[in-house]
Amino acid sequence: MIVLGIETSCDETAAAVVCDDRTILSNRVLSQIEEHRPYGGVVPEVAARSHLDHLDTIVKDAMAEAGLDYDALDAIAATGGPGLIGGVMVGVMAAKGIALTTERPFVAVNHLEAHALSARLSDDIAFPYLLLLVSGGHCQLLCVEGVGAYRRLGTTIDDALGEAFDKTAKMLGLGYPGGPAVEQTALGGDPERFALPRPMIRQAGCNFSFSGLKTSVRQTVEKLPPGKLLDQDVADLCAGFQAAAGDVLANRCRHAIVEFRKLHPQGNTLVVAGGVAANAYLRNRLQALCEGEEMKLAIPPQHLCTDNGAMVAWAGIERFRLGRSDGLDFSPRPRWPLDPNAPTAAFAGVKA
Ligand code: KG4
Ligand code: ZN
Q: Which atom, in ligand 1's list, is nearest to the CA of 178?
C-alpha cells in the first residue's frame, strides 16, 4: 500500500510518499520560518497564503522523488485538523482534488494522531505505549492504545511548552523559532543563578502549566538593570528556563507512567514526539527518568518529530488498512481532540 500524505496545519508545507512496509519514498518539507520571522511567530493568514503558493510544487516534488505516477497511490491523506484553519483547508482541498481525479480514497488525518503514530513508522513500536506530545501547539500525555484509541492523561492548562520556549526566546531577543536558540544559548549558562518556578509539580495528576514560568522569566528580566541584559544573563536565563521545563516534564511523566501502568501493566515504552523532542537536554532528562522507571524511551528522528508529511501518510496508512477513509464532504477541523472523553481541565484557555 502506498499513500501520499499532505501536511499544512502550521508553518510547514509538506508532502511525502510512504509504503505500508514503513519505507519512506519521499518526504519534502518547506519551512515558512523566514516568512514569519519578522513577526516573531506564525501569522495564520501569511501561513495559509504561503501553503497555497507552494503546496502544488511540494506535492509534485514528493511524487517525482518517489518515482511514482499518481495511479500508483492507494490513498491520499491530509491533515484535517487541528491547526490553523486556513492552512488545513489548503491541504484538505488539494488532497480531495487529487483523490477525485485519481479515483482514490481520501483519508483525513488528525495531526495529533500523526505525531502519536510516528514512532510506529520510525521504530515499529507496538500498542499500547505512553506518549508525551510536546510541540509549539500542544503539550499532552496520552495512552496510545490503538489507531483511533487514545486516553488523555494530562494536557497543558495554558501554554504549550514549545510556545513557552518561543516566547522566552522572544523576550530575550533570541529570535524565532525560539526552541533551538534557547537550547543553544543555555549551553553557556548557569541553571541555578535565577530561581524560576516549576509550575504544577506539587499537584497530583499529569496536567502542565508553562505560562507562570514564562512570566517569571519576564519579571526576572525586568529586575535586571534596564537596557543592560548581558550575554551571560541571557544564557543563565535560558539554562534556568530549560532546567525548570525539564523538572516539570520529568515530574509529569513520572506521574503518567504510574497511571499508564495501572491501565496497561505490560506497557513499557514512553514515546516523545513533536518539535520540542528535538531538545537534547530534555531528551537526556527523559532518558534518565525512563532508566529509573524501567521504561524504554523511543523518540522518532528529528525529521519525523517536527511537522512533516511522512507522519501524515503513515497515519493515513494505519487508518486506511483498518478500512477507514473519509468522504469528500469532510470539513476541516480547527479543534479535534484525540480523546473526546477527556475531562476538561477547570481553567480558562485550556488547549484541547
Ligand atoms: O511539532 P512542531 O514542528 O510544530 C508544531 O507546533 O506542531 O514544533 C515546533 C515547536 C516550536 O515551538 C519550536 O520552538 C520547538 O518546537 N522546538 C524546540 C526545539 N526545536 C524545536 N524546543 C526546544 N528545543 C529545541 N531544540
Ligand atoms: Zn505538529
A: 14
Q: 296 alpha carbon to ligand 2 midpoint, in Å?
A: 23
Q: Can 2-117+303-320 and 127-299 be said to share one CATH topology? A: yes
Closest atom, ligand 1, to C-alpha of 115 = 1
Mapping DSSP onto H, E and C, the string for 62-126 reads: HHHHHCCCHHHCCEEEEEEECCCHHHHHHHHHHHHHHHHHHCCCEEEEEHHHHHHHHHHHHHCCC
Give the distance (Å) from ligand 1 centre to CA of residue 15.
19
Q: Which H or E run contains 256? A: helix 231-263
- Residue identified by cell 524560576 is 196
| CATH superfamily of the 127-299 domain | ATPase, nucleotide binding domain (3.30.420.40)
In the sheet with 12-19, reading across from the earlier edge strand, the strands are 24-31, 12-19, 2-7, 75-81, 106-110
Three-class secondary structure of residue 2 per DSSP: strand
- pLDDT score recorded for residue 351: 47
Whole-structure pTM value: 0.93
CB 276 near ligand 1, within 6 Å: yes
Domains of the chain, by residue range, sit at 2-117+303-320, 127-299
What is the pLDDT, as a whole number, of residue 345? 63
pLDDT of residue 349: 44
Best substitution site from 306, 308, 336 to test ligand 1's pocket, by max atoms within 8 Å of Cβ?
306
pLDDT tens, 48-101? 999 999 999 999 999 999 999 999 999 999 999 999 999 999 999 999 999 999
Tell which atom from ligand 1 comes closest to the C-alpha of 111: 7
Question: Domain 2-117+303-320 falls in which CATH fold?
Answer: Nucleotidyltransferase; domain 5 (3.30.420)
